[in-house]
Amino acid sequence: MGRRGKTSHEIPLAPLERILRQEGGYRVSEEAAEKLRDIVENLAREIAKVSADMSRHAGRRTIKAEDVEVALKVVLSRAAGSLAA
Question: How many domains is the chain built from?
Fold first, then answer.
């Protein structure tokens, strides 16, 4: 879906377009920004799931920064493992 209408995305395209331009993209297609948004949202959701599991395992209802830090390492190592397979 383009820029019009309701979407189920949490992250707007404009900040991602800005990041792509700031990192050297003189022109950025809407498709490129949408792809980055999908990747970032999926990664964030996976990190959030693992973080929540870690806090529950520790007997807490609050997700702490260290849960997110460890979850990031877990998710990235899983991703690296699946790319190697």
Answer: 1
Whichever domain contains 80, its CATH number is: 1.10.20.10
Q: Are 37 and 16 in contact (CB under 8 A)?
A: yes
* pLDDT tens per residue, range 3-62: 555 568 999 999 999 999 999 988 999 999 999 999 999 999 999 999 999 999 999 999
Contact between 16 and 41 (Cβ < 8 Å): no
The span from the CA of 46 to the CA of 4, in Å, is 27
Report the amino acid identity of residue 39: I
pTM of the predicted model as reported, rounded to 2 decimal places: 0.82
